[in-house]
Amino acid sequence: MIWLNVKLINKAEEERIKMRDRSVQLIIEGLKEAGINTIVTVPDSRFKELYPALANDPYFRYILVTNELEGVSVVAGVMLGGRGAVMLMENSGLRVAIEALSRLGYTHQIPVFMMMSYVGDIGEINWWGINHGLNMKPLLEAMRIPYTVVRKDEEIKNTIIRSKHHTAVSKYHVAVIFSGEVTSSAETVSKKS
Question: Residues with Cβ < 8 Å from 188, sequence gap 6 or more?
C-alpha cells in the first residue's frame, strides 16, 4: 500500500494564493485594450478572483463551457465572426484542447488566443500540479504555439495586447501564461513542500 503525504491548504495558505486586485484589473484593462470582448472559460482556482470581475463587467460576453476542446472551438467561431475572444483556462486544459487546436490552426488557419494559469511552475504548492507544468511547454512547442510567461504585473497589459495582435498577424494560436507571481497575493510562490 502506498501512502501519500498530502498537506491540506489552511485558511492562511488559501489567502496567500488569492489573486491580487491589481492583477485582476490589469488583465481586464489589457483585454479591453486588445479588443477582446468575449471570454470563454472552464474556471480554475488560480483565476477565481478574475472570473466574477469578468462576468459582471457589461463590456464582456462571458461564456462557460464544459471542457477546453469545446472552449477553443467556441473562441475560433467568435474570431471567425470578427469579434475578439480568449480562452481562459488552467494550463492542464491544453492537453484536452490539442486536437481542436491542431485542426483549427494547421488545417484552417483559424487562430485561438489563450490565457492560462501556470500550474506546476517552480514553487508549486500542490504535488498534483507538477505534471501540468512539466507537460505545458513541450505541448506548446510541439504544436509550434508561441507563448509568453507573465511573471510581473507590469507585463500584463502589453503582453495581452501584443499576443492578441500576433494571432491576427500570424493567423495562428498564441498563449499567455500567468505564473504564480501574478495569480497569487504572495510576492513569490512558496518553495515549501
Answer: 123, 180, 181
The confidence band for 17, taking pLDDT boundaries of 50, 70 and 90, is low
Domain segments of the chain: what residues?
Answer: 11-183
Average pLDDT value over all residues in the chain: 87
Q: How far is CA 118 from the centre of its chain?
A: 7
CATH of 11-183, one of 3.40.50.970, 3.40.630.10, 2.40.50.140, 3.30.450.20: 3.40.50.970
Give tens-digit pLDDT for 61-81.
999 999 999 999 999 999 999
d(CA 156, CA 29): 9
pTM for the model stands at 0.86
Question: Residue 97, SS3?
Answer: helix
